[in-house]
Amino acid sequence: MNRTLVASAIAAAILLPSAAFAQAAPTFTAEKCYGIAKAGGNDCASTGNNSCAGTSKVDADPASWVYVPEGYCERIVGGTLSAA
User: Fold this and answer.
1) Which of 28, 53, 69, 73 has the greatest CB tally within 10 Å of its CB?
2) 38-51 confidence digits (pLDDT tens)
C-alpha cells in the first residue's frame, strides 16, 4: 500500500472522533434555549456538573441549553431563554 494513503487513514481515524465533539455554532440565527435538552443532547450548560456538549445527565436540565432558531424557544413546552 501507499504510505501516504495509510498515514491519511490513520490520521482520519484519530481526528474524526475528536471533531465530532467540537461544538460548532449553528448556521442559522439562533438563541440558547434552556430546559429542553435530552440527557446527553445539550449544546452546553450555564452551571453545574456538566460543562458542555453532550454532558447533561438528565432530561430537561434547567441549566443546560441547546441552540434553536431565534423566536422558537418560548414556543417549546419547558423552554426558557435564561437558566433556572
Assistant:
1) 73
2) 988 888 877 666 56
